[in-house]
Design a protein that fits this description.
This protein has 178 residues and is mainly α. 80% of the residues lie in helices and 0% in strands. The radius of gyration is 17 Å and the shape is globular.
């Protein structure tokens, strides 16, 4: 259990704490800011665990599996809560979550054939924009509403582009020609 894997597990542990502060009125107006801080900390662990793992050659099978899963859990949990709070349209979240299921299915098929498919730059851009979108939506600053909406649509476009890129680059996974 190296440092990157501990950061990944920490991110997973933060998810239910984040959800509580998003949904329950514990501290009044401070709840959203606490939830926002937790989300930002969890997002930063995503950035850190990968950098540390690559820099110090601490990449593990556990990390390859859990890191993307932890990211999906964090982002999808946040977006589902934002739908409940009427901050994001549900159809956008459905598209984003569908993309995650499709990619996860592809990765499972690839692994069964002895192949690990790394995240692409499109996927990394997508995740970055989704996290920025979530931060802006949680903060809910009226003066930034137009920027928030633009970021939401950019995140959606990157979600679709990264899916198409992934499917095209890995079409051999479904054909069995790996």
């Amino acid at each position: 259990m190296n440092l990157p894997n501990k950061l990944t597990l920490f991110r997973v542990i933060l998810i239910p704490v984040f959800c509580v502060f998003m949904l329950v009125d514990i501290t009044g107006d401070a709840d959203k800011w606490i939830a926002l801080a937790i989300f930002i900390i969890a997002s930063l662990t995503d950035l850190l665990d990968g950098k540390i793992a690559r820099k110090y050659n601490l990449v593990t099978d556990f990390g390859k599996f859990m890191d993307p899963l932890a990211d999906k859990l964090l982002v999808c949990s946040a977006m589902i809560l934002l739908v409940d709070l009427e901050k994001i349209p549900s159809w956008i979240v459905v598209i984003i979550i569908a993309r995650e299921f499709i990619i996860s299915g592809f990765r499972l098929i690839a692994v069964e054939n002895g192949r690990v498919i790394a995240a692409s730059y499109w996927g990394k851009f997508k995740t970055t924009f989704q996290m920025i979108m979530i931060i802006l939506m949680i903060a809910d600053i009226p003066a930034l509403s137009v920027i928030t909406t633009v970021i939401m649509y950019v995140a959606l476009i990157l979600t679709v582009v990264s899916l198409v890129d992934y499917l095209v680059k890995n079409k051999d996974v479904m054909s069995g020609e790996m």
